[in-house]
Amino acid sequence: MGSDTVSEIGADFSDEKSRAAQWFRALRDEIVAAFEGLEDSHDTGPLSDAAPGRFEVTETRRAAPDGRDAGGGLMSVMRGGRVFEKVGVNVSEVYGTLGDRAQAAMAARKGIPGMAEDPRFWASGISLVAHMQNPHVPAVHMNTRMFWTPHAWWFGGGSDLNPCLEYDADTAHFHGQQKAHLDPHGADLYPRLKDWADEYFFIPHRKRARGVGGIFLDDHCTGDWEADFALIQDIGRAFLPAFVPLVEKRRVQPWDEADKDAQLVHRGLYAEYNLVYDRGTKFGLETGHDANAVLMSLPPLAKWV
Predict the structure, then answer these.
(1) Is 65 helix (H, G, I), strand (E, B) or coil?
(2) What is the pLDDT of residues 217-258, one digit of tens each?
(3) Which of 19, 82, 83, 305 has its CA 20 to 30 A from that of 137?
(4) CA-CA distance, 284 to 302, in Å (whole number)?
(5) Which are the contacts of 275, defined by CB distance < 8 A and separation ≥ 6?
(6) Rounded to whole angstroms, how far apart are CA atoms 195 and 216?
(7) DSSP state of 302
(8) Best CA proximity match to 46, nearest among 95, 93, 83
(9) Collapsing DSSP states into helix, strand and coil, what is residue 2?
């Protein structure tokens, strides 16, 4: 079976589901700790005299139409920090049955047989979006996820950098870390996932990319679950070394009103993309997940001119 195809399965994958959900939670814990550490260590430059930000953590639950438990997760959001203006790091593990519209969308994309007869699903993942105080520090997005039905399983996700004020060195560093973590899985992987991100994170009605790219894959199933899980873990592991050095370098730079204005206008692009095109946003709302958790990716402030 080739890469990026779904795979027929017969087991309920209970062990694999548990391991994947535990990994996404562990990655969430590591990232939350690192981001609060950035708040604590910001002692020079703009806003360094403000109080360090902290995450507010909320448990999210969802219920099936008949009232039965359908999973949930943790929504962790920091607002008004001295480095992060708004950042959300969410993890979820949800299950139930896919509605008609979700089934139709999935069947159209993947051609999975048997979905109508047995529409059960399970999904788990981590989703992160960071909007920064300093316009010189790039916004960033990362998510990784696993999806299971009785008929197929697959992984998806990636990360991309969204600066309003671009620095070539920052772009090169971010992409370099992605490549370093992907190369052990095959030299052809980074170029292919980079191209996929360039295509996926493109805003058709603006005829431009929303940022400077990154990596992206979806519907990824080679038939070897262990190999595919190892890949999705390394996509997650690439995130902090790709992003944290950029924050540490740029957070000390002064900015002016024009810089902040450029940031707010760029955030408008981000909001448009997430509301119009993003698959995760559509899936989360379609399957009844907590709307605040689904829409935590939206910036706190944006501007259209």
Answers:
(1) coil
(2) 999 999 999 999 999 999 999 999 999 999 999 999 999 999
(3) 305
(4) 23
(5) 281, 298
(6) 8
(7) -
(8) 83
(9) coil
